[in-house]
Amino acid sequence: MIHLKRILGILGGLLVIGLLVLALIPSPIDPAAYDPLPGPTFEGALASNSRLRNAEILAPAEAHGPEDVDVDDRGRIVAGLEDGRILRLTPQEDGSHRNEVLARTGGRPLGLAFSPTGALLVADAYKGLLSIDEAGGIEVLATEAQGVPFGFTDDLDVASDGTVYFSDASSRYSVDEYLYDLLEARPHGRLLAYDPEAGKVRVLLDGLYFANGIALSRDEDFVLVNETYRYRILRYWLKGERAGTSEIFLDALPGFPDGISANRKGTFWIALFTIRNPLMDRLHPRPWAKSLLAKLPKALWPKAAPYGFVLAVNENGRILESLQDPGGQVVREVTSAQQHGSFLYLGNLSGKGIARWKIPPELMRPQP
User: Which of 6, 266, 310, 316 suits 174 as a labelling partner, its CA being 20 to 30 A distant?
Assistant: First the structure.
């Protein structure tokens, strides 16, 4: 008994010393208090389902972390991988795909979209806004806006006139530190527009909370930008009486909105990286707790639940349908959802392969 008390005393002393040391170590973040709005209940269009478990996985051996996916007018699938490669999958007559490396950016390619001229435009977290030609040649289009370098070039969409709308997720934290941005809960993101004629970038919105997915409306009269760490989506008006103003398009989402795309028929596809973490929501109002957590090894941080989640939303902000895979048995960490023909192609953060899901007829109809 004496030995046990002595051991417990030593352990208690070490714990106190450890806590004192932890308190004295400078935190890598300057966290702000934030009270998240309660998330919605999983009912109606959000009712739990396993529809994404019917997805087919393409190129599992070659595609590691295909953050964003797009398809050109020849049906070739492109994906930006975690090692900096742009992978291209060309469909074959037997239904298979021939895989090749289109380009190597030397960074982390995130958002992908084809321009009206056929060039592949890339938002690379490290390299900025890029253009890649058919032969894989890379041109750097922009690396800063108004004298502020891009810190985390993230997603993009391209208008019919060639204007590129894109996001700089965080001017403070890089792609390797995105969880610090989550804990800090301060607005470091921007919505930007690149004019291909002038070769210049304009800042449309500043002070965004991790500016992420970008998508234009059917008539290109507004553009959406996801604020991932606020569980919401903003709408910025490009035309009409409200041009130059913004508003909340969707709020209090059930998870973290990552990529967003538009089929240009009135439907937006919103990829949710995962569902909310209740512990993280309880930590947000307590900056001191987040400051301490940021000092600990990331292995001790709250974990993202494995979950596949995509929303279909109309241009009025109404959720039409949800596609889910609870537990992430087939699809998880969904970072992008791109419609091409009757299929939805899904990217992910760090998994293997591109998911392809057959869209049912009721979700193929144009929205009023």
Answer: 310
Query: What is the number of structural domains in the chain?
Result: 1
Judge contact between 266 and 298, C-beta under 8 A.
no
> Is residue 153 assigned to a domain?
yes
277: containing domain: 34-363
Residue 259 lies in a domain: yes
Residue type, 220: E
**Residue 20 — very low, low, confident or very high, per pLDDT cuts 50/70/90?**
very low
Burial pattern 177-191, b for ≥16 Cβ within 10 A else e, equals bbbbbbbbbbbbbbb
Is residue 25 very low, low, confident or very high in pLDDT (cuts 50, 70, 90)?
Answer: confident
HSE, CB side, 13 Å, CA atoms: give it for residue 277: 16
For residues 229 and 181, the answer to whether their CB atoms sit within 8 Å is yes
Question: Model's pTM, two decimal places?
Answer: 0.93
Q: At what angle do helices 287-295 and 2-24 cross, to 10 degrees?
A: 100
User: Whole-angstrom Cα distance, residue 327 to residue 323?
Assistant: 13
DSSP letter (8 states) at residue 64: B
Q: Does the residue 155 lie in any domain?
A: yes
Residues 6+ apart with CB under 8 A from 164: 113, 115, 121, 129, 141, 156, 157, 158, 193, 194, 196
**Per-residue model confidence as pLDDT tens digits over 284-328:** 999 999 999 999 988 888 889 999 999 999 999 999 999 999 999
- Residue 161: both structure tokens together: 């006139």
Contact (CB, 8 A) for 153 and 124: yes
User: Residue 203 sits in a domain of what CATH number?
Assistant: 2.120.10.30
Mean pLDDT for all residues in the chain: 93
Residue 6, domain member (yes or no): no
Percent of the chain residues topping a pLDDT of 90: 88
115 in Cβ contact with 158 (< 8 Å): yes
